[in-house]
Amino acid sequence: MDFAKSVIDATCEIFETMLMTRVTPGDPLPNRSDVFVGGISGMVGMAGGYRGMLAIHCSNQVAMAITGTFLGIEVETVDDDVKDAIGEMANMLAGSVKSSLSENGKDIKLSIPSAVGGEEYTFECHAAADQVLMPFKMPDGEFLVELQLQEQSE
């Protein structure tokens, strides 16, 4: 399974249809950092045929821009609406990735989305999972979409 292609396809589709915004994928990053500064991460857990998570990591500025476009409002501070919107973006991305994985006959359940953020925070995930960390550019800045999955034996 080409996880990078699944992430690119899902991200481009969700941003174009839900936000009317074109995003440009970069090359997958070879290493991830567990520490994020001045931003928000939205995440959704995945269980079933695959176990892992999908997360979107973005700066406060990009998170506010996404939220403003998504909700059609002016956003001036990072508040609960911003955290909810970034969590919902992770949910939509995970749902789209789930669909591409389910075409292979995999049964996957998604968790309720959540979001964390702050001046500096740590985001750790499953060490043994296959992972891809894809950077994307949009007019308001850059963000990352991370997918970590481990196929479960039947």
UniProtKB/TrEMBL annotation:
Every Chemotaxis phosphatase CheX-like domain range: 40-137
Flavoprotein is among the record's keywords: no
Keywords recorded for this protein, A-Z: Chemotaxis
Gene3D superfamilies (alphabetical): CheC-like
InterPro entries (UniProt xref): CheC-like_sf (IPR028976), CheX-like (IPR038756), CheX-like_dom (IPR028051)
Chain segments annotated as coiled-coil in the UniProt record: none
Keyword Transmembrane helix on entry: no
BP-aspect Gene Ontology terms: chemotaxis
CDD domains: CheX
PANTHER family: CHEY-P PHOSPHATASE CHEX
Protein name: Chemotaxis protein CheX
Species: Geothermobacter hydrogeniphilus
